[in-house]
Amino acid sequence: MFISHEFYGLFSEKSNKHYAGFSSDFETRFRSHNEFEKDWTAKCRPWIVILTETYLTKPEAIQRENWLKPGAGRTYIKLLNKN
């Protein structure tokens, strides 16, 4: 059985915030951000998807997330949102 791992970038117009993460079940995870989460992402709803990338392994998705969350990666995600 093939399990893909999705890296994703989200944007909240309401709070002008970006969020990056990864999941092996992106549809459920995205829904969770918009409906069920009780952490800080709940305060920023609704979230829109600005980027998804599929990886074959979890370590690849984590590596991409670790690059895109800080510094240059965060700038990259913000630039994607302006296009």
Describe the structure.
By secondary structure, the chain is of the alpha+beta class. It has a single domain (5-82), classed as GIY-YIG endonuclease, CATH 3.40.1440.10. It contains three helices and three strands. It has helices at residues 26-35, 58-68, 71-82; strands spanning 5-12, 17-23, 48-55. The protein has a three-stranded antiparallel beta sheet with strand order 2-1-3, sandwiched between helices. The mean pLDDT is 88.
Write a brief caption for the model.
The protein is of the alpha+beta class.
Keywords for this structure?
3-stranded antiparallel sheet, 83 residues, alpha+beta, GIY-YIG endonuclease, 3 helices, globular
Query: In total, how many beta strands?
Result: 3
User: Any idea how many domains?
Assistant: 1
Rg result = 13 Å
Question: Mean pLDDT, nearest integer?
Answer: 88
Described by strand count, sense and barrel closure, the largest sheet is: 3 strands, antiparallel
Write the element-wise H/E pattern from the N-terminal end onward: EEHEHH
In the CATH hierarchy, what is the architecture at level 2? 3-Layer(aba) Sandwich
- Stretches with pLDDT under 50, minimum 5 residues: none
Q: What is the CATH topology descriptor?
A: GIY-YIG endonuclease
